[in-house]
Amino acid sequence: MRYVEGLLTPDRGWIHPIERRIQQAPGIKNERILQMELLDDGTVTTMYELSGDREVIEFAAEYVPELITYQVSPMQDRIITYAHLESNEMLTGLLELPHTYQIVPDFPIEFASNGGIRLTVVGDEDQIRQAMDAVPDGISVELQKLGDYAPENERLLSRLTDRQREVAEIAVDMGYYDTPRQVTYDDIAEEVDVAPGTVGEILRKVESRLLNALLG
Fold first, then answer.
1. What is the rounded CA–CA span in Å between residue 148 and residue 10?
2. What is d(CA 196, CA 188) in angstroms, rounded to the nearest whole number?
């Protein structure tokens, strides 16, 4: 089973008008699509993760004529919005691809700063490539990574070199990331047989790569 990570960027900056409306709302940001499904009647159900003020989101929702029903649920520092909405040609075209090519989108799907989406799809490699070629007009496709599918944690760790992963795992096991911290660079250095400064450099690179993968 293979996966492809890619960036899909709509030429107009949004795929569905609800996303455009959110972009226009002050202080509101599209974060992730937690789930999305095309129904038999051609409408779409979806769950968005947003950041910002709940009242602003609800105000913005009132000006989306394609929105059939919605519910807004604040959860700590994020807001989850369920929406049932009328689709459009571009969104329908995208949501039909998994059924046509027997591929599976791996949720959540991240929003990019330019209105595009970063997504992972899983399935047969040839089918994935055919699906990417069939993305509706008006959306550019940039394939960024291809590999054997693994759960999210394993894909994150695959961004590390073997040495980085080894040192990071030892640091965790020894309690470097505990609160309060149980060991120092010197303690880890003795275990992995490198200089303390090298340990610090390796762990900083590990932290940078993982944080960029999660938040970038």
1. 27
2. 7
